[in-house]
Amino acid sequence: MNLQGQPAEAAPTSGPSMAIRAHLFHQGTVDHYRHLLAVAVDRVAHRVANVDRPFSGITPARLAPEVDRVDLDRPLADPAAALDELESVYLRDAVWFHHPRYLAHLNCPVAIPALLGEAVLSAVNSSLDTWDQSAGGTLIERRLIDWTADRIGLGPTADGVFTSGGTQSNLHAMLLAREEAVAAVPRPREELLPRLCILTSEAGHFSVQKSAKLLGLARDAVVTVDTDPDRRMRTTALAHEIARCRRDGRLVMAVVATAGTTDFGTIDPLPAVAELCRAAGVWLHVDAAYGCGLLVSPTRRHLLTGIERADSVTVDFHKSFFQPVSSSALLVRDRAVLRHATYHADYLNPERMAEQRIPNQVDKSLQTTRRFDALKLWLTLRIMGPDAIGALFDEVLDLAADAWRLLAADPRFEVVTRSQLSTVVFRYLPAEHHLADDANLYAREALAASGAALVAGTRVDGAHYLKLTLLNPETTVDDIAHVLDLVAAHASRYVQTKSADVPARPCHVG
To answer: Which PANTHER family does the entry link to (predicted)?
Structure first.
């Protein structure tokens, strides 16, 4: 019956409506689902099996017109045609992180058990905000949070939540630190906010500055602390800045230490930093987005000594646990602080649910609707195990040490500090030193245009450098040596043409 008491019309069993419904995933379309996903998986597998370089070298100017020509108001209807089109607008020119000569950013090749998890979680489509949308998914995420907190050593009152990535995890941590700092001082909030400051290493992640802006702190709220020649936070400088901020009438709401800086892979002296924070009564956040792989390392776990004293910790499983994006988490020592992110909505998570001990993850999260990304890590641990993940992470750390030695012995290059993780910062150094910056910028662009390899770039003490980020156990020292030869060839050609006052063009060597 309908709302007016009249007989309801039967759902159509044929015609246009049924054709449209055939695209929805339900018990009547499982065969179509199986077939279509098998076709898509086969296409991706074929691509991966036949990729001979990490990138095609396509430019935005060349690819954008192809994407712009697609008329999104006129569907192709045929899945095969849509996949053919996808080849030209995406797969053909995708950046392949699994390729051993992709050496640019913190993107890892992914574990197959995690891809299995991705397929399951996308199809079931659980939302991890409330128990009545996820059930077992809620408990799996909570179990993984407990497992990670135990690996860190945060203690029995620890808790946390999965996030979209390190930037969100750091923002969440700074929100909690801000609220704790404000609650600890019996003064009006509007008086305290302009006085709050965050201390972090000059080699720390930019998301700390971004978080301060999003949280409404003053423009100069983030105070950078000097680093030593190894690009680790100087504890003497940290102590000085804590004292200076207090003399200036500022309130230090948090110190952010880094366990794996993005450029240098270095780890701040966590025990000493933790002691300074304890003595000053300051919140300690450790950004271990990159270095969290050490939690499962069979040989290097000691590098994280001191992290167990943090008030909050960021971990990015999609950096060093070989997980697909996204898979990150924020962990806290005291679960009670997560209340600062809690808001009870009557339609979703009313207060009575908390009183009934119904586990709603939205009570801890900055997000509401949230994917079941924890499932990828769960299946990876259940199929591979943590020791296997740690062994793979150790392989890339060993490879980075070999790459550093290779560069240190090569007169064509100069190399910066030796990483504690898997980055290597270096640059081509021509006899004409004044051309070094432009030569390295040119070499990186020319290498990318060739598609033969990808390396990253950064600035060190105002100069342009290149960077290898090694996260692929399939990469070899021979791969690295070959890429260095390509870099040197491009840079050398730039120097020669510049010296001869002839415009340089990218050379497609290798």
So the answer is: CYSTEINE SULFINIC ACID DECARBOXYLASE, GLUTAMATE DECARBOXYLASE-RELATED
